[in-house]
Design brief:
Elements: H1 2-45, H2 70-81, H3 88-99, H4 105-120, E1 124-127, E2 134-137
Antiparallel strand pairs: 1-2
């Protein structure tokens, strides 16, 4: 009996994933078509141009409630107020309280990415593994 529930859930999950793959393929097909049209226009306007030599740019999506650099400032402020190393969830709760918003998955994800970037920059120290990771400000002393 337990096996049929697991099989049913896995079947449903596979169906959802197959649908997402089909959607991604059609989106990719449309993007390639658009890219081809832009390349043709570039070649019409400048015959010496090589469109494939143009590097791609990734879009950066901002959270609507935050201004440029605000997430970093709020993360550093939350870490400064903490008396011991804290998790990204605690930092996200502090930020949500300061902004008067709810902690959503996108806010928590953005806090984690900000903390990773601050670690790379040497401003924050991390300890622990993956989701159990704790963060603290580096003491310049």
């Amino acid at each position: 009996m337990g096996t049929s529930i697991v099989t049913g859930n896995l079947t449903k999950r596979r169906a959802y994933l197959a649908g997402e793959v089909a959607l991604a393929r059609s989106k990719l097909k449309q993007l390639r078509s658009d890219l081809y049209a832009v390349d043709r226009m570039l070649r019409l306007l400048d015959s010496g141009i090589n469109p494939t030599a143009i590097k791609g740019i990734q879009r950066h999506y901002r959270l609507p409630d935050f201004k440029h650099g605000e997430m970093t400032r709020l993360c550093v402020r939350a870490l400064r107020r903490a008396e011991a190393p804290v998790s990204a969830g605690v930092v996200a709760q502090e930020i949500a309280k300061a902004k008067g918003i709810e902690v959503t998955a996108s806010v928590l994800s953005r806090v984690r990415l900000t903390m990773i970037r601050l670690t790379r920059e040497g401003r924050v120290i991390r300890s622990g593994a993956h989701r159990a990771r704790l963060w603290m400000l580096r003491q310049d002393g």
